[in-house]
Amino acid sequence: MNSMDPTDNAQLSKTLREGNNLKGLGVLDKNGRLCPLVGTHPKMKQIYDQILLWAPTSASILVTGETGCGKELVAQALHDFSNRSAGPFVAFDCCTMPHDLIDSALFGHEKGAFTGANTQHVGHFERANKGTLFLDEISNLSMEMQAKLLRVLQTRKFERVGGTKEVYVDVRIVAASNRPLEDCCAKGSFREDLMHRINTGVIELPPLRERSSDIPLLSKEFLKQFRTQYMKDIEGFSQEAMDALCTYRWPGNVRELRNVIERVVILTPDAVVQKSVLPPTISSPNGESPEPTILTPSVVRRIANEPKASELPPTLPQVPANFPNPPKYTPYHPSLPQVHTSYQPPQHSPSPEQVAPAPLVLPPPSKLKAEDGFVDGEPRLFVEINKFEKDLIVRTLSLFHGNIASTAIWLGVSRTTIYKKMERYGIGVTAHREIEFR
After folding, report:
1. CA–CA dist 181, 203 (Å, integer)
2. What is the Cα–Cα distance from 411 to 409, expressed in whole angstroms?
3. Axis-axis angle for helices 380-399, 404-411 (nearest 10)
4. How far is it, in rounded angstroms, from Cα 53 to Cα 46?
5. In the structure, what pLDDT confidence band is assigned to residue 383 with cuts at 50, 70 and 90?
6. Bridge partner residues of 161 (DSSP)
7. Burial 204-240 (b: 16+ CB within 10 A, else e)
C-alpha cells in the first residue's frame, strides 16, 4: 500500500471518511478535515470521533490539554455539530478578568448595582441562551464563584448582580483547563462537586509534539491564510525549513506554530520559505539557541542610564568579586573584618567615623519597652536600613572615584535615584571627585 501524502486533498478526504465512518455526515470539508480542526494523526481522528459522539448531546464537556493546543476550536466544533448550532457560541476566558468582575461578566448586573453601573448589563450566560458557553481556564475561578457556578448548572437559574428577579437560561457548558482538575481538587483550589458536574464527557487534546505528522498540514494551512492576508506570493516551504519545523518540539503547540508561520510569511522575500527566516530556536540544529537578552524594566533602565565615555574615569578600579553583595554585606566597623582592595580612596574621603554605624547596645529583654523601638520618632528598623544604605552608597562612590553614573550602574538604579539619596543623606562630590558631607 502506498503511503498517503497528507496534503493530497482527495486521498485525505477519502481516508478520513472511511477510517472514521464519517461518510454521509457532511462534517468533512474538501480538505478532509473536521471543521474547524486540522489534522490526520490517529490521535486527532480519535478527537473527531469523540466530538461527533458528544456533540448531539446536552452533556457538559471538559476539554483538557496544554496551552495552545486548540481547546476553543474543539468547543466550537462541539457547538457546530450539535442541535444548538443555530444558537450563539459564547467564549469566556476565566483568567483574563479580576475575580470581583467575573460575577457581573457571567451573570450580568442591574442598573445601579454598583458605582458605574449606569445601564443594565446582560451577562455571558444570557447571551449564550439556547447555545453553548465555553469557559476557558475554569480552574482559575475563585472558590466563591465556583459555588455560584455549581448552583447555576444545577438549577439553570440565577439573579443578576443587584437584582432580585430570577433569570432562566438553557445553556450547554463546555469547559477547558490546561491543569488537571484532579490535582486542583487535591490542593483544595477547585471544588470536587463542580468538577464532577462539568466532566460528564472529557476530551483530552494531544500536544503538537505528539502528532508531529500534522505539522506539514498545519503549516501549509496557516501559510495559505497569511499569504492571502499579507498579499505575498509564497508557494511553500523548502525541505530544510519543513524538516526544521517538524523536528522542533513546539512548547507553545499549534498557537506557537501559527505565530511562527505568520512571522516567516512577513519576512520571506522569495516564493519559497527558507530555513534562514525561521526563528533561531527552530532553525538551530538542536532546536536551541543562546539565552536571549530579555528587556525587563530593570535592563531598560540600565541601558537608558548608561554613562557616556566622557563621564567615566580613565581607569576603573578592579571591583572585588564579593563587593557589594547586600545579603552578605557587612557595614564598616573597626572590630569587623573589612573588604580589602588595591584602590586607595582620595585624601579627603570620609573617615571611618563618618560612615560607620553605631554599635548596637541592647538592653535585657525583660527591660525592653515599646518606645525602645523608635529613634527620634522613627522605627529603629528604618533607621538602621537608612544607615546601611548611606554606608553602601558612600563606599561605592568612593570605589568609583565619585563617579555617579558608574555608582548607579553598579547598584542597579538610575542616576536620579543616586542624586536623591545623596541629597537625602547629605553626601556630596567635589569637582575633583572627592566625597564630602554637607
Report:
1. 13
2. 6
3. 120
4. 10
5. confident
6. 109
7. ebbbbeebbebbbbbbbbbbeebbeeeeeebebbeee
Residues 352, 358, 363: CA angle, nearest 5 degrees = 160
In this prediction, residue 191 carries a pLDDT of: 94
pTM over 0.85: no
Position 199: which residue type?
N
Give 98's DSSP letter: -
Fold of 34-204: Rossmann fold (3.40.50)
Report which of residues 294 and 140 the model is more confident about. Answer: 140
Has domain 213-283 been given CATH number 1.10.8.60?
Answer: yes
The grid coordinates listed for 258 are: 501559527
Set of cell numbers at residue 384: 538602621
- Angle CA 281–38–11, to nearest 5: 115
Closest CA to 111 of 101, 103, 125, 121: 121
Report the distance separating Cα 252 and Cα 40, nearest Å.
Answer: 20
Answer yes or no: are the C-beta atoms of 436 and 354 closer than 8 Å: no
How does DSSP classify residue 28? Answer: B
Torsion angles phi and psi, residue 236, rounded to 5: 175, -155
d(CA 171, CA 353): 76
Beta bridge partners of 429: 435
Contacts of 193 (CB under 8 A, 6+ apart): 150
Domain map (residue ranges) of the chain: 34-204, 213-283, 297-338+346-356+373-437
